[in-house]
Amino acid sequence: MSSQLDDFKELLRNSGNSVTLPRLAVFEVLTKHEALSMQELYQRLAGQIDRATLYRVIELFEELEIVHRINLGWKYKIELAETFTGHHHHLTCLGCGTVVPINESKLEDFTKQVASEHNFRASRHQFEIQGYCAKCQAKD
Amino acid sequence: MSSQLDDFKELLRNSGNSVTLPRLAVFEVLTKHEALSMQELYQRLAGQIDRATLYRVIELFEELEIVHRINLGWKYKIELAETFTGHHHHLTCLGCGTVVPINESKLEDFTKQVASEHNFRASRHQFEIQGYCAKCQAKD
DNA sequence: TTACTTTTGCAAATTTGTCGCAATTAATGC
DNA sequence: GCATTAATTGCGACAAATTTGCAAAAGTAA
Q1: Measured between CB atoms, does B96 come within 8 Å of chain A?
Q2: Which range (A116-120, B59-63, B90-94, B95-99) has the least confidence?
């Protein structure tokens, strides 16, 4: 049986990349959290790796589709990609910041259809709903 | 009959904000373009206003929902909000940055349904497709 | 026009993301 | 294991993007 960690290492090796300490560290932090900003990620790594390295690692992880960026207004956060988490879209609470993953396969077909109507080749899509969770609604 | 410009001025006044030259200038530029980055916006304003002011104006416009940001991977662009343009989503080209608005009412119902399933009160949603436009596909 | 409040421009500080390069670490063949 | 080779890292310097304090200028209301 193969663990997520093994899948990750294999993915690196198969693409001609080394399995290094910084890469393992970043991956480990990501498996423990829903979605993190660069800031948060850097802080969680607590001096284990350099900031420039973090950016380079995330850049590589994106190419290999190990992670994705999700956008929240000005900012973005990093999270593990579908291969590792199995979901795609999000409901985010404007009150407390909670991110709830949602899985909506209907959107896949929808995306393809819209893209082809405009002669685009869609390589990714993003669907985000922002609002207030039950708890935050209760506070009002 | 009220113009977009009048609506805009009223919106500012009703919220206790002044109608100033910089604000008018930014609004005018935005009415003339689909979606602009801060860079582009600043350049279009050609020295009419300071960079810091631009950021402050955009911040205010966002609060008043005069504009919103649309996300393109790492980056974002500014565009007039639904009140002024009619609610829409986007197809963005990862090659050249072109933004094509799409209007998909199906998503409204969809959003409501998903939100209620999770006991969320949805206040806004965002649907973005990223890919390559016909021109950029041809370049490969 | 005056008196009062808000907004702006400027300059400086932060924050965020990049780059080149020498030192270090991982992978490979023995 | 050990040496060789290639990939990766950390560091310091940059560059770009965004924020802040404050005095001067512009907008508002009477």
Answers
A1: no
A2: B95-99
C7 C1' to A62 CA distance, Å: 42
Same-domain check for residues A69 and A93: no
- B18: the nucleotide nearest its CA (via C1') is D27
Q: What is the pLDDT of residues B4-52, one digit of tens each?
A: 899 999 999 999 999 999 999 999 999 998 888 899 999 999 889 999 9
In contact, A52 and A18? CB cutoff 8 Å: no
Torsion of CA B3, B5, B11, B13, to 10 degrees: -120
Q: How many CA atoms lie within 13 A of B35 on its CB side?
A: 22
DSSP string, B16-30: T----HHHHHHHHHH
B92, containing H or E segment: strand B89-93
User: In chain B, which residues have their Cβ closer than 8 Å to the Cβ of A100?
Assistant: 118, 120
One-letter identity of residue B73: G
B92 and B82 in one domain? no
Indicate if A125 and A71 belong to the same structural domain.
Answer: no
Q: A31: Cβ–Cβ under 8 A, 6 or more apart, which residues? A: A4, A80, A84
